[in-house]
Predict the 3D structure of the following.
Amino acid sequence: MTAPLYLEDLHVGQTFVSGSTTVTADEIKAFAREFDPQPFHLDEEAAKDSLFEGLAASGWHTAALTMRLLVQAFPLAGGLVGAGGETTWPRPTRPGDTLTVHVEVLEILPSRSRPDRGMIRARSETRNQHGEPVQVSITRIVAWRRPV
Amino acid sequence: MTAPLYLEDLHVGQTFVSGSTTVTADEIKAFAREFDPQPFHLDEEAAKDSLFEGLAASGWHTAALTMRLLVQAFPLAGGLVGAGGETTWPRPTRPGDTLTVHVEVLEILPSRSRPDRGMIRARSETRNQHGEPVQVSITRIVAWRRPV
């Protein structure tokens, strides 16, 4: 367990690398049944004739798996709370893929009105086992100042 | 079942409204256990002392529920495939909230290189039962031309 990080502990260019997680075809289909029930996320045969040319995880499944890895890898004090951001999925997550998240702090923005906190802007890249990005996000995240 | 929509069927300013879904505290915790295991998504007591001041759904849970509603509400031919976009969470989804998604087509972008498809840019607003936005997304989505 790493000590929680406060705003003062962060600097631009700082990087974090997560552990990894492997996603199965059954997990891809279970997520899709609940949240994104489209043929290319549910059925190998139907997926062959789709844009994805084979079973592909929902982008929201990739995003959720990324979050799970980030919660472990990026131990901000008070938790990891995103205010929003931009996400792209350069390629889909496939059955059997092993994902790892690489995070970089892009910017540190102390709050002008709230002396106890700030925001950071961070870039996270979720990579498969070939090192290829399956998700790139630039996100604003709450960071607390160390209590005095 | 609405007929699937092709690029030619869409116009700027067109709107769609989804059905609704209600999320329970148990569902919020189950999603969090799997994808976003932080105290404010897992436990009412711990959540009281957090930024959220009470149990709150993971933003990725709100995003996944939004996707489920969109798949029903926005029947694009070939399925709903997002290339990426910006998402903000103006307030959290709470236990018992009933969510509805309102979509508007912002822009239609035929592909220059691929005559069979284009992209649209759409804004989706996920609202709770008080009409308050819990998620606002501006997303690029693949749209296919009607086969000739």
